[in-house]
Amino acid sequence: MVMERFCRECGAPLSGRSDKQFCCGECRTSYHNRNYDKEKKGTAGVNRILKANRRLLEAVYAAGLRRISLKDKRLRGYDERYFTSVEHRPLRRTRYYCYEFSFQIRGGCICALAKH
Ligand SMILES: [Zn+2]
């Protein structure tokens, strides 16, 4: 039995190779472009916040500070809900990462700021 297959973009019936998904290059391109745009919309907001956090940490680090209150005006705009990864360490303080920076949160402060 031959299953009838259709272009994922325009719905035109497909013939030829059984792994074919699109009727033509144009349909393949517009399908992938649309999904790329969706992905971009979905990630842009979070990426912007993470990059802003990273820039603030970079400035604090460059100023030689390794501990700073989250209320300090030099961290204005910092959003502590966002980080790139977290390291849970038994018996030690949790370490948060924002790209190449890592730190602990203690008493409303970013502490032990390090650059990797
Ligand atoms: Zn098509």
Can you offer a commentary on this structure?
- This protein has one helix and seven strands, in the order ββαβββββ.
- It has one domain (24-115).
- By secondary structure, the chain is α+β, with helices and mostly antiparallel strands.
- Strands 3-7-6-5-4 form a five-stranded antiparallel sheet, covered by helices on one side. A two-stranded antiparallel sheet has the order 1-2.
- The protein is 33% helix and 22% strand.
- The longest helix is centred in the middle third of the chain and has 38 residues, at 25-62.
- It is elongated.
- The structure holds zinc ion.
- Residues 7, 9-10, 12, 22-24, 27 line the site of zinc ion (ZN).
Summarize the structure.
This protein is α+β, with helices and mostly antiparallel strands and 116 residues long.
Topology:
Layout: E1 5-6, E2 13-14, H1 25-62, E3 68-69, E4 85-87, E5 95-98, E6 101-106, E7 109-115
Antiparallel strand pairs: 1-2, 3-7, 4-5, 5-6, 6-7
The structure holds zinc ion.
Residues 7, 9-10, 12, 22-24, 27 line the site of zinc ion.
List the main descriptive attributes of the protein structure presented here:
alpha+beta; two-stranded antiparallel sheet; 7 strands; binds zinc ion; 116 residues
Using DSSP, what is the number of strands? 7
Give the strand order, joined by hyphens, for the main sheet.
Answer: 3-7-6-5-4
How widely separated are the two ends? 58 Å
- What small ligands are held by the chains? zinc ion
Q: Report the major sheet.
A: 5 strands, antiparallel
The chain-level mean pLDDT equals 94
Order of helices and strands: EEHEEEEE
Overall outline: elongated
Low-confidence stretches: none
**Cα-atom radius of gyration:** 24 Å
**How does the helix and strand content classify structurally?**
alpha+beta
Tally of separate domains:
1
Question: What share of the residues lie within helices?
Answer: 25-40%
Number of helices: 1
What percentage of the residues does DSSP assign to strands (E)? 15-25%
